[in-house]
Amino acid sequence: MNANDYRPRLVLGIDPGLTGAVAALDPHHRVELLEDLPTVARGGGRVRRELDPAGLTHLLRPIAGDVRLAVVEQVASRPGQGVASVFSLGHTAGAICGVLAALGIPMVLVPPTAWKKAAGVPSGSDKGMSRTIAARLHPGIDLSRKRDHNMADALLLARYGMASEAA
């Protein structure tokens, strides 16, 4: 095999948000990376957390050349969400897209309804259902904490990307 024959092999799944996560799977669905999204404290009088784009770049740079696709959950506002939280989510998703573009990683935005349906997560189910399904698919990964639903979502997003590429 020469250098021109190399095909990137990893698929990323990214659940955006301040408590989001990123997962990388190889073609055999082995977990190569599973991390919370890095955040940093910002603000003057009122400290708030936001995505750390430099931290995300640092996390992804070592594997960027091996990534053939990043699947990012498409964010949207929902009834009852506050303006500040919607803006924060949009800002985080935009920063993620910027980091992926800067690293040369191809990406697609996928609505939650699409990847959840493909993963078998029933519509309207609680966040624990993603954890249950991801834990069954990846028995070596501990997803027992409630807050691990974001890691579970990232894993299921990556699996969605692998399945949609195969189709």
TrEMBL record:
This is Crossover junction endodeoxyribonuclease RuvC. GO terms for molecular function: crossover junction DNA endonuclease activity; nucleic acid binding. InterPro entries: MOC1-like, RNaseH-like_sf, RNaseH_sf. PANTHER family: HOLLIDAY JUNCTION RESOLVASE MOC1, CHLOROPLASTIC-RELATED (PTHR36015:SF6).
